[in-house]
Amino acid sequence: MLIGALLFFVGYLFQCWPRFFNPYFGVDVWRNLSIADEIRKYKRLPRRNLPKYMLKGPFDYPPLLNIFLSLFSKKWLEKYQGFIAPLFDAITGFILFSFTLFLTREVAVALLAQLLFVTNPLAAMENASLTARSLGNLTFSLTFLFIILFTVFHSWAYFLLAIIFGFLVIFAQKMASQALIMISVIFMLFRMDVSYVLIVSLSILVALLLAGDLYVRIASGHLSVLRYFRKILDNRYAHQVSGNIALKGGNDFIDKVKSYVNKQPFLAMLASAPLVTMGLVLSLWGLIFIPKSFSIPPELYLYHILFQFCLWLIVLYYFGILTAQVRAIQFLGEGMKYLVFASFPASFIVAYVSFYEIRLNANFIPLVFSLVVVAMSVAQTVFLQKKGIVNDRQRTLTPVLRQVMDFLQNEPGEIRLATIPFSLSDIIAYFTKCNVFSSDSAFVLGNDPAYTDFYPVLKRPLEEILSVHNINYLLIDKNYVNPEALQLAAGSKIVLERENLCLIKR
To answer: What string of DSSP letters covers 11-37?
Structure first.
């Protein structure tokens, strides 16, 4: 366990090191801190969205992360927010180590599984800033693990634990809830066992009984987000002003990556997930050569678990491919997001089969490939971290942006601000008194045309949108768009210009 704890800290630092060089990176982080501040201040969850967001709707995002954040002081969170999301991933990796050690009684297998998990480039980039994704993956992995253990051992303790963590998934992350429902239905149909859907249904029922109105808002918000992504599918990666998908990337590394993912989703999945891809190959091998579950003697519980881990990975991998390639279901999420939820079984499968082959056939090839995957993952992760986090300026609280915010904070009267690109709005709302033209309500995304008129692509003349909503300031990043291209009214004037940022008063 001591070695596992050591690898816990190594894996944690591996994901955190970019924050020593760029501590204020991220977009969603500032919205999460704003909600946590609201919870801390009023000792309860908000029912409506935060007052600084102009487009109004119910508070309908899963609040588990925000509740956790509210336990810490505002000042502490601002300083250390970049170190929180990787912590949940490191915990998941240590749970994987402990589970593998308990199941196999082999330290080497457990260490390899943990090493594969903590070096996974998908997870590292998901945890680049403070979002609920790593918490979603933690609760999802534990929920489905306990569901599998219940179907193997028929212990009511596992049954109750699965319901508890299923309940937490609902309040942790929408994507995790969606993946859990989907995989449970597929497992039920494939295994002809209602346990999977029964446990998830009971988790939903508990959520409805204990947090009825909040759960209804979260579920409604989730459906609203799906409607929104279905509406904007063609423009999801487009430039907000020109509407040109090719221009979206510009010189920004993260936008270039998103543009490539949009053009070549399947190749992007293969390139970004060497661990899960190797796990898929070994899972298909396992389903051929490991006896089918109904013919495995009950005492060989390890093979029952391994069989279901193989299915777990295969289902998520192929569903990820479908959502990436089939236009009709692309609104269900980026294919790579599903691969994150397959990292837990993939790490176990690759580690177990690597040493299984050595024991059984003196075959070191899987182990060699596993170590190659680790090396590839480390190199890929460091490259992405350096280019996407350390060198980032578009999603970072820079000294120049601080100057702009100081100016806004000292301006008299009410400030109603729009930003281009849209991602600047959350950080402005957090650090200043400005009301921003945005929303933190999922309901607004799918139901308020004012939102989709402005983002992801301007559907109406910008000047018309600004006038209708009485917006008196516009902040733009000149690296993203030239002010002259916006065709603002004659009375508009630049009141502050600092490097790439330009503040216009109307």
So the answer is: HHHHHHGGGGT-TTB-SHHHHHHHHHH
